[in-house]
Amino acid sequence: MFSYLTNLRCRRCDARHPADVVQGVCTCGSPLLAQYDLSRLAAESSRAAFAEREPSLWRYHELLPVSQPEHVVSLGEGMTPLLALPRLGERIGVPRLLLKDEGTIPTGSFKARGAAVGVSRAAELGVRGIAMPTNGNAGAAWALYAARAGLHALIAMPEQAPVICRSEVAAAGAELYLVSGHIGDCGRLVNAAVARRGGVQEVSTLKEPYRLEGKKTMGFEIVEQLGWRMPAVIVYPTGGGVGIIGIHKALSELVELGWMKGPLPRLVAVQAAGCAPIVRAFESGARESSPWPDPHTVAFGLSVPKALGDFLILDAIYRTDGCAVAVSDAELLAAQQELASTEGALVCPEGAATIAAIRVLRERGGIGEDEVVVALNTGAGIKYPQTLSATAPLLRPDGEIPAP
Ligand SMILES: *Cc1c(COP(=O)(O)O)cnc(C)c1O
């Protein structure tokens, strides 16, 4: 069988919903999570089956929701490199530091994973158009994958969103709107448009079940690339939290299949000091977050004042004995520079935030010297020219380059 998907389950009220029709959120308003027939899969296959397959996230198709191989819409996403960072690791006292580098993925950010699986499944279920509010990267990814699938895409983003993402959406031929407001305002406008139009699915963060399934494949890849071993810690830049919830779900599925042994890695959510609702909730031991009043950070992927799945993020942290840490824009920008100059990895500011956080955690004793620590870089640094700058002497053609 190509997919072992069975149904959808609400993690708040435990209601079950069929998975063979288009679904949004649960009747209680909470995200729905895809369920698989894991006992049957364990009986019929093993993790060794993955080894011979193509290096994309579709190698894990039994644990993904698309039921027919011909419905897969792909730009070659997944199986991104897991890079050792020995120099930087030595410097910050974590010599076994690794970087899962999503900077090489189609569309320039790991939003491609969610879009590939989300668009494939939507098209398989007969959806003809998708609509979403976005801060930038998600809109770019979904618009490009929608173009590949032949679906219409309606995207609304704040006027302040990065020009590069706006241009990607426009290049994809999507119906694009700029809104003189924040992402919440975009959401209300999209919602109203979807209610008036037929055949269009709203695919905002965690408002449909399958983006999460695409993003969870980062969890599968990390342990497969480590020779089916769990790292001690995974550090993740958290906005809407789809990635961290997804990695937790993926690793839990592997343990339930009997294909991996626990304990799970400690999951660390990193946020920007200018928008840190999950960190604030974690520090007070809360199970949900409160809306962050005035979000501001250069790491725009982290600018989510209140995540729909906040209770799932906090649950993943508590269950794995992880934590949540905030770093300032100055710290994450310094880490971006340091990572590029010590290791040659030019990461996005969100990815750089994980490095800044690992340094802080190591100093506080939250990470041990001999632990295997995986930092997630969620996008390409070159997508963020506003965070990079260069000063250099200007030479005349008849000038001279000085001696070293
Ligand atoms: C969206 C985004 C994030 C946050 O992702 P979540 O999984 O929703 O928390 C982090 N980094 C980048 C580059 C993003 O675009």
The CATH architecture of the domain at 82-108 and 210-384 can be named as: 3-Layer(aba) Sandwich
Counting DSSP E segments of at least 2 residues, the number of strands comes to 13
**What is the overall shape?**
globular
Uncertain spans? none
The biggest beta sheet is recorded as: 6 strands, mixed
Order of helices and strands: EEEHEHEHEHEHEHEHEHEHHEHHE
Q: What is the mean pLDDT? A: 97
Distance between the termini: 63 Å
Which percent bin holds the helix content?
25-40%
Give the class-level CATH name of the domain at 82-108 and 210-384: Alpha Beta
Bound molecules: pyridoxal-5'-phosphate
Q: Helix tally?
A: 12
Secondary structural class: alpha/beta
Strand content: 15-25%
Return Rg in Å. 21 Å
Order of neighbouring strands in the sheet with most strands? 4-5-13-10-11-12
CATH topology of the domain at 82-108 and 210-384: Rossmann fold
Topology summary:
Layout: E1 5-10, E2 16-18, E3 32-36, H1 38-44, E4 82-84, H2 86-92, E5 97-101, H3 111-124, E6 129-133, H4 137-149, E7 152-158, H5 163-171, E8 175-179, H6 183-196, E9 200-202, H7 211-225, E10 233-237, H8 242-257, E11 266-272, H9 277-283, H10 310-319, E12 323-327, H11 329-343, H12 349-364, E13 373-377
Parallel strand pairs: 5-13, 6-7, 6-9, 7-8, 10-11, 10-13, 11-12
Antiparallel strand pairs: 1-2, 1-3, 4-5
Helix pairs in contact: 3-4, 3-7, 4-5, 7-8, 11-12
The structure holds pyridoxal-5'-phosphate (PLP).
